[in-house]
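Contributing new complexes? Match this layout with magnesium ion.
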Amino acid sequence: MQPIISVTNLSKTYKSGFSALKGVDLSIRRGEIFALLGPNGAGKTTLISIICGLVNPSSGQVLADGHDIVTDYRAARAKIGLVPQELTTDAFETVWSTVNFSRGLFGKRRDPALVEQVLKDLTLWDKRDTQIRMLSGGMKRRVLIAKALAHEPQILFLDEPTAGVDVELRQDMWKLVRGLQERGVTIILTTHYIEEAEEMADRIGVISKGEIILVEEKAELMRKLGRKQLTLSLQEPLASVPPVLASYDLALEAEGNELVYTYDTKAERTGITALLQDLSQANIRFKDLHTSQSSLEDIFVSLVRDRR
Ligand SMILES: Nc1ncnc2c1ncn2[C@@H]1O[C@H](COP(=O)(O)OP(=O)(O)OP(=O)(O)O)[C@@H](O)[C@H]1O
Ligand SMILES: [Mg+2]
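Output block (do not edit by hand):
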C-alpha cells in the first residue's frame, strides 16, 4: 500500500545557517501510530512543521496522501490535523467559536453535531462558552486537540501532546488516540515519555541531530535490542569476577554484593543453567535472584548516546 506520508531526502537549513534536518527519508503507513523520539533539538518539530506547511523545506519532497505539500499545499493540508507543541490560542475567543472557526479554515461546512462530539470526547463540553484565557493549561491543550480534529483530518500530528499534563489527561489522550486510529486516522506523535511510545506506537522512529537513525516496529525493536539481565544477590561479596566464570557476560555491582549476568533473549540458550552450575562449583552462594528486561528507554538512551 502507498504510504500516507512520504518524506524524501528532506533537508532544512534555517536562516541562521543551522542545519536542522539532513536528508530525511521517512514513510508513514496508513492507519498506524508512529512515535518519533529524539532528544531536545533533534529536529522533531521542524520535521512536523514542514509536513504541515508551517516551515519551508530547503530541499527534498513531502507527499501527504499523494499531495505535494509545496505545490499542492491546500489539498495536502486539508488531510492533516496538527496539535502543536507550543500553546498558541486566541485568548478571548470561546472554546465553541475557536473550534468551529478551525473547521471553517479548511473550507468545511459547519457541523455543530460533530464539534459537539469532539468537545464531549475531550471533556470540554461544559466549557464551551468559556473564554480560552480562563482555562487551565491542561484544558487549553485539550482545546488544541479539538481544533486539530475539527476538520476531520485523516492524518493527525501530535507534537508532545502530553508534556506537562496530569496522569488523567494523559490517559484520556491515549484513549482518544486509539479511538481515532480505530476510525482509520493515521497518527504521528512525538514524546519525551518513552512509556507513551511503548504503550501507544506501532512503529518507532528515532531522530538525532537532524537525521533519522532508526525506524522499526516497536515489537521488533524491543526484541532485537532487548537484553535481559539476571541479578544474583550474593551471600558474600566478591572482589572480582572469578576467572572460572570469565566466559560469561558478568558484572559485579552493589560493591560486589550483586552479580549481574546479561544474556540475549533471542539466543537459543540463555546459559543460565550452566552459569548456576558453575557458580555452585566455584562455591559462590546467592540468597536471591531476579531478572529484568531492558526497556525502550534503555534502548533509546543507548542509541542516542552512541551517536554523540
Ligand atoms: N526558526 C529557527 N531558526 C533557527 N534555528 C531553529 C529554528 N527553529 C528551530 N531551530 C533549531 O533547529 C533545531 C531543531 O529544533 P526542533 O524544534 O525541530 O527540535 P525538537 O526535536 O522539536 O526539540 P524539542 O524536543 O526540544 O521540542 C534546534 O537546534 C533549534 O534550535
Ligand atoms: Mg519540538
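Reviewers usually confirm one structural detail per submission. For this one: The longest helix spans residues 167-182.
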